Automatic annotation (TrEMBL):
Keyword NAD: no
Keyword terms, alphabetized: Magnesium, Metal-binding, Phosphoprotein, Zinc
Binding site for Mg(2+): 130
Signal peptide: none
GO cellular component: fungal-type vacuole membrane
GO molecular function: alkaline phosphatase activity; metal ion binding
The protein's name in its UniProt record: alkaline phosphatase
Lineage: Eukaryota, Fungi, Dikarya, Basidiomycota, Agaricomycotina
Cofactor: Mg(2+); Zn(2+)
Manner of cofactor binding, per the entry note: Binds 1 Mg(2+) ion.
Length: 381
């Protein structure tokens, strides 16, 4: 469950576990929901992000239930279930179009179907979900997008806790873990803003976030798309910023900086100029557009085993701690890892592996250019 199944952790889970082309473990996944439709369609089709003619969607049809809209998701009542709701990434919660379900809706459906499917089984299930847009928004130093994603994650966590309680009531021991793989952006709160309109010298001003109806990433893409019609005007910038972010006392000087940035044709320059107006008003600052080594929290719920997660841990320790929750005979990670490592080693020399390698190349390319593809899309719209 992810913004784009083509990215990071779920990508590898998806590639291995759709079980379509002789992966050694066969199909071991029952439900996959998120964006990333572009990776399922052949290169020659519009919006594809593949570098070959493989049609995963076609291969999946008939083997999986496949849904594309929130209504279809809500009506889905059988596993295995594949949901593809966006060409690439899902939108931040605050920018979400009606064509995409929220994280909570996806998690709720997954828990509903998995709970039903395991009602008469002693096997249980493992559900992994990720709110990748927290990372995306922080790469963009986008405080509105970040807070909107954080609120959505919090809402989803509440929902999961209710499900866990229900599972316990039917006698299933359950562990709910929530953490981050890393911090992004080096977000600092209570920066000593230089903007004269900010009255506080300490603290943050959440009302700026509350007033916004869209993220600065979304607003940037609107401004960028407008440059296709010619140079931006002061009125245009004022209008777009007022309509989407409702910044108080947004000045001609600030609008001029955005116009100058837009004239360079670089979407990141527009984003930086807009963020330079937003972040000081909120009194937040960022140290980077990349990942950081800042410690992240681990939350654990509904089980005495949670005490294993107290204190500070290296990220690699998490797997060991999670495995400690199971009885030794229940799970054999070693042999599964061996099968996958062996498979990947041979995969890198044969034909099908080439597409794996290029899929990974696309992935890292796309991670570097987290805004470019969306900028192109914004111009097309
Ligand atoms: Zn990232």
């Amino acid at each position: 469950m992810h913004t784009a199944q083509t990215e990071k952790t779920p990508s590898f889970i998806a590639q291995q576990q759709l079980g379509l082309d002789g992966y050694p473990l066969g199909r071991t996944t029952d439900i996959l929901l998120g964006g990333g439709l572009c990776a399922y369609i052949p290169e020659s089709e519009e919006d594809s992000c593949r570098t070959d003619e493989r049609d995963l969607l076609n291969e999946t049809m008939g083997l999986w239930n496949v849904v594309f809209t929130p209504d279809e998701l809500s009506a889905a009542d059988a596993l295995p279930l594949l949901g593809l709701f966006a060409t690439e990434d899902l939108a931040y919660a605050i920018d979400r179009p009606d064509s995409q379900p929220g994280l909570a809706a996806m998690v709720n459906k997954a828990l509903e179907l998995l709970t039903a499917a395991t009602a008469d089984s002693d096997k249980g299930f493992f559900l992994f979900f990720e709110n990748e847009v927290t990372d995306k928004a922080q790469h963009a130093n986008d405080i509105v997008g970040t807070v909107s994603a954080g609120l959505e994650l919090s809402e989803t966590a509440e929902l999961v806790k209710e499900w866990v309680t229900a599972l316990e009531e039917r006698g299933d021991e359950t562990l709910f873990l929530l953490t981050a793989d890393h911090e992004t952006g080096g977000l600092g709160l209570g920066t000593n803003a230089v903007s004269p309109i900010v009255e506080y010298t300490y603290g943050i001003n959440p009302f700026v976030i509350a007033n916004a109806s869209h993220s600065s990433t979304y607003t940037t893409l609107l401004l960028y798309a407008a440059t296709a019609e010619g140079n931006l005007t002061l009125d245009q910038v004022h209008q777009v910023v007022a309509d989407n972010m409702a910044l108080q006392y947004f000045s001609d000087d600030e609008a001029t900086l955005i116009i100058e940035a837009a004239n360079t044709g670089d979407v990141y320059s527009i984003l930086a100029a807009l963020n330079a107006a937003v972040n000081p008003r909120v009194q937040v600052g960022w140290t980077t557009m990349g990942h950081t080594a800042v410690d992240v929290d681990i939350y654990c719920s509904n089980n005495p085993y949670c005490s294993a997660f107290y204190g500070s841990h290296e990220n690699a320790e998490l797997l060991e701690l999670m495995l400690g929750f199971y009885d030794d005979d229940d799970i054999d990670v070693g042999s599964v890892t061996e099968a996958l490592v062996g498979f990947n080693a041979t995969a890198s020399v044969d034909g099908s592996a080439e597409s794996e390698v290029s899929a990974r190349a696309i992935q890292s390319e796309r991670r570097r250019g987290f805004l470019e593809s969306r900028a192109r899309g914004a111009v097309r719209r």
